[in-house]
Design brief:
- The protein is an all-alpha fold.
- The protein has one domain.
- Helix content is 65%, strand content 0%.
- The chain is built from four helices and no strands.
- The longest helix is centred in the middle third of the chain and has 24 residues.
- 22% of the residues are buried.
- The model has no long low-confidence stretch (mean pLDDT 93).
Length: 105
């Protein structure tokens, strides 16, 4: 695939196909899914215990699993560094797409 990041992507609609191409490796996708699931678990724990200190774990579990997938398995640089908001949105859209079966786990 050509480097879609060589030209600015001006909408999430333009970004998401590139995002999916950057997650072609199944292990990378699985690590993203695990990280996103843990983020939800941390949010639930923080809410149920009324302890905001748990929220400090969110970037660690979310980005930790995702970046491990990129650097170790996908062998690419996460788009988060150039498109942080679109990448965050892409994480949750891909999570939904995995849960609904649109993208294989």
């Amino acid at each position: 695939m050509t480097d879609a990041l060589s030209k600015p992507l001006r909408s999430f609609r333009d970004f998401y196909p590139f995002y999916l191409a950057e997650h072609a490796n199944r292990t990378c996708r699985r690590l993203h899914f695990i990280g996103s699931s843990l983020v939800l678990a941390v949010l639930a724990t923080a809410t149920l215990t009324m302890n905001g200190w748990f929220l400090l774990a969110i970037p660690v579990v979310g980005y930790g699993f995702a970046w491990l997938g990129h650097f170790a398995y996908e062998k690419n640089r996460p788009a988060t560094f150039r498109y942080p908001l679109y990448s965050l949105m892409g994480d949750w859209v891909m999570f939904k797409d995995v849960v609904t079966g649109r993208i294989p786990f």
